């Protein structure tokens, strides 16, 4: 009699667990986005006029980094953070205290283009080297 009760209880718990999987809230896992075919160009004059380096009053050069983003998730990714390293012609890290460089508001499924504005101190030699660029984001908007 007692064993029969335990078996029924066990089956009820199992059936409830299986049934609840169909009603579970969506999991918004972080999605990695590959960034490639990177290049950069000078900003238009309207954007670069009066540019200063972050945290100082040193004059700065403004660049637009562009490339392609590959979103493998099949869903639109929102607020994808862009990470990467930028080096000058002497292999010095241009932004030593930053690896997060900006964000992409929306990355549709598949391949798309992106652009990012960077300002670097004007005394650093070019050409710049863009390395280890990647992005990550969520399929839902992140709200705080």
Automatic annotation (TrEMBL):
<keyword id="KW-0732">Signal</keyword>
<feature type="signal peptide">
    <location>
        <begin position="1"/>
        <end position="24"/>
    </location>
</feature>
<protein>
    <recommendedName>
        <fullName>Biotin carboxylase</fullName>
    </recommendedName>
</protein>
């Amino acid at each position: 009699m007692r064993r029969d009760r335990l078996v029924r209880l066990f089956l009820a718990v199992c059936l409830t667990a299986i049934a609840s999987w169909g009603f579970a809230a969506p999991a918004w896992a972080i999605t990695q986005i590959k960034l490639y075919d990177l290049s950069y160009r000078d900003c238009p004059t309207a954007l670069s006029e009066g540019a200063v380096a972050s945290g100082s009053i040193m004059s700065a050069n403004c660049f637009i980094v562009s490339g392609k983003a590959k979103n493998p998730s099949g869903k639109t990714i929102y607020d994808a953070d862009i990470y990467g390293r930028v080096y000058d012609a002497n292999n010095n890290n241009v932004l030593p205290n930053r690896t997060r460089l900006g964000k992409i508001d929306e990355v549709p499924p598949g391949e798309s283009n992106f652009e990012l504005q960077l300002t670097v101190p004007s005394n650093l030699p070019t050409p710049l080297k863009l390395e280890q660029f990647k992005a990550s984001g969520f399929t839902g908007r992140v709200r705080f």
